[in-house]
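During the reporting period the student researcher (J.K.) took over the structure-prediction task from the postdoctoral fellow and processed the backlog of single-chain submissions. One of the processed entries is reproduced below for the supervisory committee.
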Amino acid sequence: MEEEAAGEEEEASAEEEEALAEAVTHYEQATTLQPSAQKYYELGLLYERQNKIRAIRAYDKATILDPSLAQAYYRRGNFRLNYKVGPMSVRMYEPQVAIPDLKKAIELDPKMADAHFSLGTAYHQMDMPDQATAEFVKTVEHDPGNVKA
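J.K. obtained the following structure tokens:
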């Protein structure tokens, strides 16, 4: 019974991966035909689930095409803050690398609670409790339902 359930789970996972790969291929084609910051941003979101290093490149292109797209800066900074590799889940980037993007996102959209939270997390990882607390407070101010902060 358990083996059967595990087999069904693996099959569903394989189908999801195949569907995601197909979606990425189609979205890459659409982005190539009509490039836009929004499309590169959305492509980055898809890449985060499939080809992580391409996510950074897609966010880079989004910020180049539209330097005022706060979400792209936030996602790139947050991605760098949380990207881990290997069996021991080693962080790929130091938190300091994420801070400029997170600050830029907040500059462009001061009420972006998620960016404040990620910036607070970066400060926490850098052992800067006062700055972390200030960002977590701002997170709750902008999103009172944010239980993470």
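The committee noted the following: Helices lie at 2-33, 37-50, 52-65, 70-82, 95-108, 113-125, 129-142.
J.K. will present the remaining backlog at the next meeting.
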